[in-house]
Amino acid sequence: MKYAIYGVFLIFFSLIILPSIIVFGFNPHRTSSTPENEVKLIDGGNLVKVDNLNNKDYHTVSVFITNQNKIQKIDLEEYVKGVVAAEMPAEFEIEALKAQAVTARTYVLSKEIVLGGKGCQLHPGADVCTDSEHCQAWQSEEELRQKWGENFDKYYVKISQAVADTEELVLVYNDALIVPAYHAISGGKTENSEDVWQSKIPYLRSVVSPGEEVASKYKTTVVMSKEEFINKLKQKKPSLKLDNSDILNQIKDIERTQAGHIKTLKIGNMTFGGEEIREIFDLNSTNFNFEAQGNNIVITVIGYGHGVGMSQYGANALAKQGKKFDEILRYYYTGVEIVKIEDLLKIQH
Ligand SMILES: [Zn+2]
Question: Where are its TM segments located (predicted)?
């Protein structure tokens, strides 16, 4: 009974709470050198049972192609190629690309399994959509030809290899599929899940993530006038009282997570969440600091994304050190195992 209640809670968390958090936390501004997305929501958390797979051909994914407004059935491994290509720069190390392939596969299979054809709540009949703000980014071969130009052959072969080398592999914890959350740049340390999403998920633990500094967006700044700063905050909280003369001294009670991201802070007479500030000023993460320069406020931001799970730049740094994809995945997802889907099925029965 206790188990059932936990399961119901996890499903509620996954279907209702997690998607809204993830969409809220998403930052649409990207460049080609930055991984395309910061997270993958998944349905069912660590209690995604695979029993339903017996009645379904899980090798075929019903994908709602958002920019074409239609559902297309795509072979699972072909689909994973399009996700890796959309979610991670093709210049990354092969072992990092392989790690991304396993997260992409785990994500879509959980959607297929839990919701059986209703995986994307926005698009009935689809397991997943290609809207990176809702499900998981994906690009067709034609789109990749345009994106990569003369490098197409080289990159396509590389991504195909990363997917083939990890064929059928998924991430499991306690014999169930996991929520393979990830992001571009943690800022040096990843987050504990409960600091971002309230729910303590055993395999989403904070770990140090060195080597990310090479990313062009590791550190970014946002500059605005003091008036603009106050106006934007007031748009969100009209009853804010903030004196223009000494703004920095009116920012206090900053509470940070273990990884250094801001949970809450007080500005003037109002308390804001770190995510609220991130949204108001369109910041890359909630790891930020304020400075005053003349009539301007400068916000310095470290990292890109929510910081939970695998850091894509961190994964690439580990790969450069010679770490293999399974070592990278086990580093960022505490206590997980990497197994073939068919072996997972055997465990369940
Ligand atoms: Zn969707």
Answer: 6-26
210 occurs within a structural domain: no
> How much is the pLDDT for 163?
98
- pLDDT for res 119: 64
**232 Cα to the center of ligand 1, angstroms:** 31
Q: Report the separation in Å between the CA atom of 43 and the middle of ligand 1, taken as the mean of its atom positions.
A: 12
Give distance in angstroms: CA of 30 to centre of ligand 1. Answer: 20
DSSP string, 264-291: EEEETTEEEEHHHHHHHHT-S-S-EEEE
Q: Is 174 helix (H, G, I), strand (E, B) or coil?
A: coil
Cβ 223 vs Cβ 297: under 8 Å: yes
For residue 226, report the distance from its CA to the centre of ligand 1, in Å: 39
For residue 62, give its domain range: 2-187+307-348
Looking at the structure, do residues 282 and 137 belong to the same domain, yes or no? Answer: no
- Predicted confidence at residue 109, as pLDDT, reads 86
Indicate the number of domains in the chain: 2
Please give the distance, rounded to the nearest whole angstrom, from the Cα atom of residue 1 to the centre of ligand 1: 32
C-beta separation of 330 from 103 below 8 A: no
pLDDT profile of the chain (349 residues), mean per 10: 38 39 29 35 45 67 92 96 96 98 92 65 85 88 97 98 97 86 94 89 95 96 97 96 93 95 96 96 97 96 95 98 98 96 73
